Amino acid sequence: MASVGNSTQEPFADLYGDSDWIYSVTGSFSYIVCVIGLLANTWVICVLLCKLGLKTAGNMYILNLAIADDLFLAGLALQAAYQITEVWHFGEFLCRAALAFDGLNMYASAFFVTALSIERYMAVSRSSRARLHRKRRQAAAVSVIIWVISILAAIPTLLASYYITNTREDYICITTFSNFGEPGVEFWNQAFITYNFVLGLCVPLLVSCFCYGMLIVQMRQVSMRNDAGADVKRVTRIVTGVVVVFFLCWAPFYLVRMILVYNPSLMYWSGKPFVFELSLCFTYINSCVNPFIYALISEKFRENLPCLALRGRGYISGKRTAVCDRNSTALTDIHRNSVITNNDSS
């Protein structure tokens, strides 16, 4: 049975009947991630919309990243049921919709993480171009462009989605290139996986590495120039955490697929389902981990944690925080930390 999560169309048929337990475990894990991720990302969306605002590009991109993860997680429950039962019970429309949102989330997440890296570099550079870029209107326009590009990038996934019956006359939901004609299924599999690898991992990774290389140089200058350098570092740590976790979660998945698709002999390897599904679980984790990064690093996000969850806890990370106090103020928040100087009105 091929997995469908996060554009995870496994390019090989599973030849081992005794691997069903792997899919059951993955499906059960998906339910857990779905619940935690939906609650956490919805909390981030509410905090940004109702508390911190969207006056900076960083907040705008974080909001869109949370929306992309929520869109994927909303369909993860269907995919989890499919992984456990190996039968798609939800009809052709939801089959194609689930696969399309898979691909959309994969690209949108990568592109918004890249946008965050670029925004951090441009923010620290303090150039007039950076201040223009970080205005809300420009950030909203960039977000729309990213969504459009993500939709276009996901079209091959939609074209290769099929709702068909298997040998047991059960309906399954898969991505296959068997109807694409010449030069054959193996070629189209390799082309599709390579396309995903380059667009979803290589390009974002190269751009992010370049931005962070330049950012290291800029940060040294900013931190010595004024006290705002400390605030810049706090926001930069948040973005850095999101970027690093994204690539750590997605790199194994992309690499496993590239190795499998260019080594067809591995389709007979009994460990293939386990390795593939394990790399898949890391991508699921990425869809719900970002809110915890915000809460760990940003005081302002911690201040907006539900009071019930922190009732009676007066200290977090060694510092006193009035989480449930309406009059509490924080020196660091993701809204104010996105500016470099007190005179920056972006």
TrEMBL record:
Membrane topology: Multi-pass membrane protein
UniProt keyword Signal present: no
PROSITE patterns: G_PROTEIN_RECEP_F1_1 (PS00237), G_PROTEIN_RECEP_F1_2 (PS50262)
Domain G-protein coupled receptors family 1 profile positions: 40-294
Name under which the protein is recorded: Somatostatin receptor 1
GO biological process: neuropeptide signaling pathway
Protein keywords: Cell membrane, G-protein coupled receptor, Membrane, Receptor, Transducer, Transmembrane, Transmembrane helix
Residue runs in coiled coils: none
Family: Belongs to the G-protein coupled receptor 1 family.
Subcellular location: Cell membrane
Transmembrane segments: 29-50, 62-85, 97-118, 139-164, 192-217, 238-262, 274-297
Superkingdom: Eukaryota
One MF annotation (Gene Ontology) recorded for this entry: G protein-coupled receptor activity
Entries under InterPro entries matching the protein: GPCR_Rhodpsn (IPR000276), GPCR_Rhodpsn_7TM (IPR017452)
Gene Ontology CC terms: neuron projection; plasma membrane
